[in-house]
Structure formats: structure tokens, C-alpha cells
Amino acid sequence: MSLNHLLISWKKEPETAPNITAWQVTPPRPADFHPLPADIPLDISTTLKQNGINQLYSHQAETWQAAHAGHNVVLATGTASGKTLAYTLPVLAKLIEQPGSRALYLFPTKALAQDQFAGLERLLASLENISLGAAIYDGDTPVGHRPSIRKNAAIVLSNPDMLHTGILPHHANWADFFQKLKFVIIDEMHTYRGVFGSHVANVLRRLRRVTAFYGASPQFILTSATIANPQALAETLIEYPVTVVDRDGSARGERHFILYNPPIVDPALGIRKSALRESVRLGKDMFDQQVQGVVFARSRRTVELMLSAFREATAGQVEANAIRGYRSGYLGAQRREIEHGLRDGSVQLVVATNALELGIDIGGLGAALLVGYPGSIASLRQQAGRAGRGKAPAAAIFVATPDPLDQFLARHPAYLQGRSPEQALLNPDHLLILLNHLRCAIFELPFTPGEPFGLLPAESVREYLDFLVSNQEAHLSKDKYFWMADSYPAASVSLRTASPATVSLQSVDEDGQPTIVGIVDVESAAWMVHPGALYLHEAQQYFVQDLDLQKNIAHLVPVALDYFTEPLRETSIELLKETAHEQAPGARKHWGELQVTTTVTGFRKRRWGTGETLGQEALQMPPSDLQTTGYWLVIAGETVRRLAHEGLWTNAPNDYGPEWQQIRQQVRQRDGFTCQICGAAESPGRQHDVHHKIPFRQFRDETGRILREEANRPENLVTLCQPCHHLAEQNVRMRSGLAGLGYVLAQLAPLFLMCDPGDLGRHTDPQAPFAEGQPAVALYDLVPAGIGFSQKLFEIHNELITSARTLVQACPCEDGCPSCVGPAGENGMGGKQETLALLSALAAGE
């Protein structure tokens, strides 16, 4: 039994082989070794040799040279390539050459810090005649241990959250540490993007400001997965020039990367076999062939479902502990036990979320199975890279889900293996984020009027400080700005959201006592925790009883139900300011500031596993406003006319005929001016709608002419209130080319932005007010004031359109499906041909 047997069986097995869309083999790569540098301190070189390290990989030697020369360095090489040793060598050298020096290691998660600490402790213990201490300082560190760590630890391992709330605000307790701080290590830099990255960049501004106050100017070494812009990201984070080291000199065994697309079971609808079920089958193959492996799932719930399926499929073969789950919510001791089991081989298969993606040491696995696209190519490569170590062969298999991104990548594997197209974006000068960190910074140290904040010029800083003075949060005295509010600002600033306002999620514990489950930002509350919603936290379902937006509290009760909920929303957009526009084939592209007003009109219940719609309910929720940045595409009049002439444009307003108002009045009167779904009576301020049960556009003759008389027959019409009308329209939706365009662009954009689909909003309107009544598609940042996504989309417009056309062309469905332009309503029609015609017009310049 071996990896080779497993790969041979997959190539021959009739249930597997026909669904493999790509199989890429990377040949073994020898190590590029360099001698240990002559200027490494003798104590370090002796210790390295005693540990069997007589040479360095080329990137380790290059990092040493750059760091030893005083440069800030970003190291962007593959998984398990020895990045930890690369950045630790210059740190240890400085600590030995300048006794009393200190270093700060920042990791994105506490689990990764724990793992790295174990390896660092072993290395420090092997140094002869030198005593250097390292310690973890995070929220789990006992209070009694903290003074000793501040005083004695040469290397402190922490995370940005602890630096933000537990170290910088109390810098006076850390005076000796900051005075002697020589190095700051920022591991897994690519995780600091979007809102989180923008916060961390400001935390680092505050760190540099505090260290400067104590007379120190530490060097920075950053590590990253493979992304398109490691230098730009690093320089935006630390606001210093960096030297890039990205040529990986580590040895690699043969690597297999396999793309598996589950077979289609309904060609007309484009429905494929369940990716989860296929993954369980393939994972069982790994287990049966005794190939130790990891299965990556995208959610905690999926981890638990697959873990149960694997244990059921292998019942009686082995002990249950040979197959384990691994995700957030597990106790630290339990996670360490699983990691140890992977290293010693007692755990044969682990099902994990991305909690196991980062550089935690789990030994050399034989295979990695990825269930769906993890959200970025950098993450995909890291998950695939968890299989294999050194010269041993390994395989990774990516099982595509029906999502458009998955299907695009299944047909275009070059995106996964070539140069990454992803740009990790962040904006340290985002208004709300910046203002929050200026509050934290002025609490830490007073500002002088001519003082900058990082690269933010002094004039801009002064404007913000004057605002804080006018808001009675700061006080100007003797040419210095002092914090004067009673609050401790860092405690109320989350690094994960741009908005300071949050809604507390309140439930009850086993004893009936009130407890806080978590928080969500106010902007998300209406769609995440509306009345009737199911909220998932730490694998526990909660039913939302009510949402009080006056007190910012949602009341939840724990439940165990077989369905989930998804909100139904209506959106309108107002143009605030156009920043740029350019002509493009078939359209005009724009970028600027938008006001987005969203109303949650109801929600749909869907069964877990199958996605079957179980029902819909209407809601009466207040609208929420978001001022953000957007990229929008206005379709040219000539493009619309040509598509309409070809019968490929159905976005023109419905013409119900001259007698429509009379018909409408008769139907409302027949129905007693009452909604025929929920029973709501008309209010004086707004009449109910009249809805076509069979969509108006479906009544056409052979020439395509609308048959109004048939469409407007009373038996095809029903009176509905506005929320119920919206729900009914979802069910019989006639997806147009414009709607299909918006769907596919929104689904593909994250491939280029290194963000989640949930970070972007989309809106289509055949008569868009923000586009002077012309048809338009808008994608916008779901972050107040924007984070930079829409500007990037404006810049890569041509590439995005070309990729979208390629995706829709290659999809085997007949008339639209979730994998291309989106599905129609359950009783409606898709718009694949219209979308493809529109995309072809927009890509005409290609």
C-alpha cells in the first residue's frame, strides 16, 4: 500500500478517472545549498551543525545577507521551505552580538505561535554557553507570569490583537523591552489583508511610534505565501522599503496536483454530484491505501459532517481516533494531541478547516484533499503544500464544488499553477480604521502638532486630532494633544471590522443565565441576525428571536434544526462622487463613491445538504445605509440596441398595455385590497402590487411578440404586498443577461482580489439612477468607505470580462446554473445566452 498505488487506482478507476480534468506532475527539485555564512556567530554555527544543518538553502542564505546588512526583508517561498530558520538566524545573531537585545515575533493565530514556540525553544536550548529565553505573551498567558516575561524574555511571541490591546496601551511596563527591541518578525504576512490588514498596518504604525519614543528602530522580517504583490503588501504594512527573497532553494519531492470535477447528474440544469460525498469517497481511498492525509473543508459544520461520514465508512476497520477533526472551537490541548498524532502516525486522516493551513508542524503527509476553493490561491497552495516534506513524493487533489470560481479553476488549472494573479489589498488610511487607531495612539503617547503618523502627513494628522478635540475626546494643551476621554480606546476597537458599532448576541447558558454568544457589526446585523435567522457559532445553531437595533442586542436561543436561512435583500444605489471613468468595449467603466441602501425583505429556509427550499418568510426591517466605493459598468446604448435586435436583451421595461391600471384596480378590488399570501391589508400610503403568476415575458408568439391579453388574464394575476411580491419574484425569476453578468462578475472577482465573495456587494439595474437611467452593473466594497477592492476591479476590467466570458462559454448547462450565470427561480428561466452575448460584446476589443 502506497501513494503510488493510490494514484494508479485513481487513474484507472471508472468512477474517478473520467472526472479528473487536470493532472499536473512537478518533478523532484534538488536543494540549492549554500555554505553557512562565515559571519554567523560561532555559537550559532556550532549549534546548527550539531543539529545536522551544515548548509543553508539559497533563500535562507539570501535572507541572512539582506538582514545582516540592515535591510527589512520579505521572504515569500513555499510551504515547509525553512522560513522559520531563515528569520531566526539574524535574530539570534543580534541577540548574541548585542547582549540584552530583544525581538518580537507576531503570528496571526495563537495556535501558530504555540507551535513555533516549541521549535524555537528546542533551538535555544541547544545553544551552548548562551542563555536566551523565549516566551508567549497572549490572552492565555497567566497574569502572574507576565511581569517576568516583560523583564526577561529575549524573544516574545505574540499576535496583532495582543499587541493592540495588551502591549502598546501599557508600553510603560515594556520600557526596557522597547528600548532594546532590534527585530520584529511578521509571519504569514499574506493573512493581513482587507479590513484586518488595514488595522494591523495601523497597529504597526503605533508600534513604530512607541519604539521611536524609547529610542529604538527595529528591523522587520516578514514571511508570505506566494502572492502577486509581496513587496507592495510588505511595504504598505510596515511603510519601509523591503528586500524581496522569493527564489525557493529547498528540496522538493515529486508533487502531483489533481483537479477533480464531480460528474454531472442533470445536464439541463448543470447539477453535479455532491462534492462532499465525492470527497468522502476519495478520502476513504486515501485511508484504505494507508496514505496519511488531510482533508480541508471550508466550514466547521462541514468538518463535523465529513468526520462523521468517514468514521461511519471505516467503522470496524480501525480505532475512531485514527480519523480526527481539527478546527477552531477545539480545546488547545486537544489540538496539540491531534498534531502530535499526525507527527507520530497514530492519526491516519484529519478533517480540518483552514486552522491547519498555516505553518503548524504536522510532519510530512502523503496527500491533501481540498473540498472546494478555500478563498484564495495562496490558501489553496498552502493547503496543498501540507502534503509532502523534503524529498518525499506527495499528492494534492482539489474537488470542485458547483460554485462558479471552482468551476472556472477546474477548467483553467493554469491559474493555480502559474504566477498568482492575486493582489493582497489593504488601506491603512481608511477613514474609520485610521481614526480609531489615532485614538489608540494618542492614548499611548501625546501628539505634537507637526507629528506624522506613519506615512500619513502631519497636516492630515492634525485635521483628525482637531476633530477629536472638537468631539471632546482629546485636549490640546501647551502644543500637545492629550487623550481626555474616560474610555480605554483599544478595548473597543476590533481588528476584524471597520465599524466601531456592534450588536451583542445574547443567549442563555445551561443554568438559564444570560450569556453573550458573540458580536456582529451593525451593518451586518440586519441580514445575519434578523428575526427568524439561524446563526451558527462554534458549531452550535442559534435561532434569533428578535433584533433590537435601538439597544444593539439580538436575543438568541440554542436549537438543532435541519435547515439554514439565507436573507432576501433589495438594494438601491445613489452616486455620491465619480472618481474616474474610461471607455471600454461595449460599455463605459466607472469607479467612485456610492451610497448603498439595503433592506432585508425576507428570508428563505434551505435544508442542510441538499439546499432544498423549505419555505420563505417576509420581514419588515428598517433600511440600512452604507457609504462605500464601487466599480460599475454602464452598458452602451449601441450595445443594447444591437442585442435587442438579435432578441438577446430582455431588460427593457415591461409594457403591460394601456388598460393595465384598470386591470390592476380590478384585481386588487377582487382580492379585497389584501395580500393573498400574508393577509396584510393595504396601507393608506402605499397600494399593494399585482403580480403575474406566470411571468409576463413568457407570453410570446413565434415572432417574439408579447401576448398582453393572455398574460393579463385575471386568473394569472394576484394581489401581493411588497415583501411577499419580492419573495414571489424570486421564485419565478426570469434571469436576464444583465443579471447574469452581475452574478458571474461578482463570483469571479475574488480570484483577483484575494478576498471572500462576501466582501463584495453586487447590484444590477436596467434603468440605474446612478448611471443616468442606463443599464448598469455595480460591484462595491461591503466595508464603510471602501477598502480598495473596487479600484482594483476598475483597473483589471478587461481581464475580469475575458475570464467571465470564458467561464460561461465552458459551462455545460443549457440555460444557466449556479456554476455560471446563476440559476433562474424555481419556476423561471435562465439567461445564459443573453449573458454570453453581452459578455462577447464587452470583450469585443480583446
Largest sheet: 7 strands, mixed
What is the number of helical segments per DSSP (H or I, 4+ residues)?
28
Report the sheet-strand fraction. 15-25%
Number of strands: 33
Q: Strand order, biggest sheet?
A: 1-11-18-17-14-16-15
Parts with pLDDT < 50 across at least 5 consecutive residues: none
Helix content: 25-40%
Mean pLDDT: 87
Distance, first to last CA: 50 Å
Protein described:
The protein is an alpha/beta fold and 846 residues long. 34% of the residues lie in helices and 24% in strands. The protein contains 28 helices and 33 strands. The strands form eight sheets. The chain has a seven-stranded mixed β-sheet, with helices on both faces. The longest helix is centred in the first third of the chain and has 20 residues, at 194-213. The radius of gyration is 29 Å and the shape is globular. 46% of the residues are buried. The mean pLDDT is 87.
Short characterization:
By secondary structure, this protein is α/β, with parallel strands linked by helices. It is built from 28 helices and 33 strands.
Salient structural properties:
846 residues, alpha/beta, 7-stranded mixed sheet, 7-stranded parallel sheet, 28 helices, 33 strands, 34% helix
